[in-house]
Design goal:
The structure is a single chain. With 237 residues, the protein is mostly beta strands. It contains 1 helix and 25 strands. The protein has a single domain, classed as Hexapeptide repeat proteins (UDP N-Acetylglucosamine Acyltransferase, domain 1, 3 Solenoid). Helix content is 8%, strand content 29%. Strands 2-5-8-11-16-19-22 form a 7-stranded parallel beta sheet, with no helix packed on it. Strands 4-7-10-13-18-21 form a 6-stranded parallel beta sheet, with no helix packed on it. A 6-stranded mixed beta sheet has the order 12-17-20-23-24-25, with no helix packed on it. Belongs to the transferase hexapeptide repeat family. It holds the Pfam family Hexapep_2. Residues 200-237 are annotated as: Disordered. One of its GO terms (molecular function) is acyltransferase activity.
Length: 237
């Protein structure tokens, strides 16, 4: 009986994982301020509330165990405009948190690894006589530019404004401030370790094998490079 129960439970769980995601056009999707075609929130979710103030673009994939929230508590009236905006073609990794109280804006084609934390609110500790958790928090809008990649376990703090096509290394804590397009940020606390200049290129320069060539030419075992077809008009036997 125990084996049968386990088999049924695993089968049901697998079916739910494949079929219980929130898809465009469903009743759950209609609770959101916007929910673009092709967008999906995987099952199971961790915490999702404030849907009327969350706008999701088209063809965006949000992983399982996600926390996606607008406001302090469910049922609050947060005004006429969405507090969370996630653009088109994004992928938000499983177990991540996007927590908004004033504004979190994520552009198009932003990709994150798992367990990324993005928030526009933080606790303060200015009053030494009051527990930190009881002091009124501070808010600052967050903006993540289109084309950005954020690695696993990174934290994006209130007041961060990332430009286009930035890279945030895994485990980085991104401090408040403005980061130019094509910045590479790493460390705790995070700092810009590489940037792109239109005239000088990447500073410091990229390694010769870091330019996006075929995996086999970067030392990946088991992957052969594409065959050399020769110059146009010639034959490679």
């Amino acid at each position: 009986m125990a084996r049968l129960t386990s088999w049924i439970a695993r089968g049901l769980w697998g079916w739910l994982r494949r079929n219980a995601d929130v898809r465009a056009g469903t009743r759950a999707a209609r609770r959101f301020a916007a929910y673009g075609p092709g967008t999906s929130i995987a099952f199971p979710t961790a915490t999702v509330f404030g849907e009327p103030w969350i706008a999701l673009g088209a063809h965006t994939l949000i992983g399982a165990d996600i926390t996606l929230s607008a406001g302090m508590l469910p049922g609050m009236d947060l005004g006429p405009e969405p507090l969370v905006r996630i653009g088109d073609g994004c992928t938000i990794g499983r177990g991540s948190h996007v927590v908004a109280h004033c504004s979190v804006e994520i552009g198009d084609h932003v990709f994150t690894g798992p367990y990324v934390y993005i928030t526009d609110q933080n606790h303060v500790y200015s009053d030494p006589h009051t527990p930190v958790g009881l002091q009124w928090p501070q808010d600052a809008p967050v903006r993540i530019g289109s084309g950005t990649w954020i690695g696993a376990n990174a934290v994006v703090l209130p007041g961060v404004r990332l430009g286009r096509n930035c890279v945030v290394a895994a485990g980085t804590v991104v401090r408040p401030g403005e980061y130019a397009d094509h910045s590479v940020i790493a460390g705790v606390p995070g700092r810009v370790v590489r940037r792109y200049d239109e005239d000088a290129g990447w500073e410091p320069p990229l390694r010769p094998d870091a330019g996006g060539s075929h995996p086999a030419r970067r030392g990946c075992p088991g992957l052969a490079p594409p065959p050399d077809r020769g110059a146009p008009g010639t034959r490679a036997d």
